[in-house]
Please model this.
Amino acid sequence: MSRFSIIVPTHDVPGRLADCLASVLGQSFADFEVIAVVDSLDAAAGPSPAIAAEHAARDPRVRRTQSPPDAGLPGARNAGADTATGDYLLFLDGDDTLTPGALAALDARLTECDDPDLLLFDHERVHWFEGSQGPALERLWADAPAGTFTVADHPALPDPLVPAFAAAHRRAFVTEHGLVFAPGMFTDAVWGLQTVLRAGRIAVLDRVCVRHLLRRRGARHRTPGDHHMDLLVQFERAMAGAVALDVPAPVLARVFRRFTHEVLKTASTPSRLPSARLRRRFFRQATRLYRLHRPAGFRPPPGSLGMQHRLLGAGAYGAFCALRGIKSRVARALSLLREVWAKAERRLPGRDAYAAFLKRPVDEDLAVFSAYWGRGYSCNPAAIHAKARELAPHIKTVFLVSDAAARAGLPEGVEGVEIGSRRYWEVMATAKYTFNNVNFEMAVKKRPGTVHVQTQHGTPLKRMGVDQVDHPAAAAAAGPLGKLLQRVDRWDFNVSSNRHSTEVWERAYPGAYESLDVGYPRNDAFYRASADDVTAIRARLGVPEGRIAVLYAPTHRDYRTDFAVQLDLPAFCDALGERFVVLMRAHHFYEGSAGLEEVVRSGKLIDVTEHRSPEEVCLAADALVTDYSSIMFDYANLDRPIVVYADDWDVYRETRGVYFDLLAEPPGVVARTPDELTAAFRSGAWDGGRARALRAAFRERFCDLDDGLAAERVVRRVLLGESVAELPPVVPLCERVPAPAAPRVPQH
Model:
């Protein structure tokens, strides 16, 4: 018995079938069978049967079974399922492909979840000409329960738009419940409904496993014709099936609401129902079903959609058509308003002059710096800026800020320019050099002869750039990848902190830029600071003399929208005792110590979230506790203890994606629970021999370029035009002397 039975209907896909089968047979995970469902077992019957026969002759994992063409896709899938012997059924259309490593990822997740009845995963639609359109089901991963759950536990389910090829189905579960694909169009909607309603254990995998081809002629369910009446047949099947299963009332309401939404979309799209007679017939039948199956106590949604519900329930076809006409006119009016606003926006103060500024000559001695969307003077841009004032004093510099508060935090003598002001558009139009650790807005034009330096702001553990495509939660936050690549095309230089980063940036941000493999300028401080500097920084932060300062710096979670401390900080502070003080630095997306005022007042915790310089905070700390934040790569330069607190590593790895297994190659001891974290400090393991060995290996891999000279290299290469060969060579790791930690008070 195989782990997977992959059912591939082959009707009318001869041009794509070989690619489909190759994507399966080339998987690294080999425990599967492929069931090619053909019109005829006679290889001479047509191209698709011939291709299936050839693959079956070459690879014993490929088997064939037959289904007549008039049985359609539902019949082919049912025939394949009847022949299958694997633990899990996968349905793959004959012109679709599996992504590399998909089966291995599915097997791992199934094993991790102890073989659930149903595993939902993502797919991407691939336009026949334009390519991938990105992940399609990110709505299912938001707030999905961890581990396994039932349909009642996840408000995003059931979802009639989840296709059958986006799930792995336990075959024994399918057989036990006698599940089959219903005949007709829109069969996936009912199949998906009956599987999630019956499944005792459901799991999700935030990964694109299937690339679904969008054909040039389009999907049949979007083309005109009376086959759209099948949607109402499936609606009735869905509601009758849900009622028969006696599902909880909230689940029944979701089934009704979501199927009604699909019905209303068709009723509102005349192109799908090309004749007035067909449209009226569809609406009349939909009204009958709406009244028949509306759950007791069901309340229509608010707004225009709720009005459509009420009109459908009342059978008010004329009013529904009038509302649809009003919506069309409103849409056209809004489109006009957007055009007017776009023109008006171009005439806003400052922005209105941008076109004129672009006609001015480029100022060869002007450089613009920005960090974190104007949050202030920080990170790599600030370090490069300071070195530019020293080594290239002929360069005029400005630092972009978001508001007056950020301007007030600039060092003396640094010109601050507020983003969006007239001066902002002037310098963005005329500066020869621009430095940023994120990206400038799309409205900024890259002029010929200008130089843009992308400084980055961290070493990548989590997936970045185009590598996020298989992780919908992260990809959604990143925005359209097409626009991201347009911004990458503006880069002339891209700063890298280590060899690992250089390799990742090349894949994640493909472009024609030069990689500046020089180390991170912001980390120069770790090799420039003296013992007196460390003492002064600790005093400014309020660290009591003689106390061991532990910096707690958690990262952002893409699967969450708020900041909640993963660690019970009051309990942790109490467990550490009087020898320690905790410095908490929340991710810059969030506020810091809200809700922790009492422990702050106790003197056991100091909130350093708003402190301008993360480098100073690191210098003040005797040890770092973090989860997956890139701060660990920077802090490793100090050769001080690092403890990884990885309580949600599995969820983080699946939702965000990572480039390597941090728990297998950590910078120090790893704790998975609060008790383990406390034990690491009480036992001394946080700074023991094993921790030092792990840190040494980590530093060899990720601190290979940081030596205190990174900012100088950037200035010499970019602003002074020196060649790479002329730049200061990297000081070997064994010869570097990082800033000393504060003296520790001996334990009595």
Remarks:
- The longest strand covers residues 202-214.
- Residues 344-348 have pLDDT under 50 and may be disordered.
- The first helix runs from residue 14 to 25.
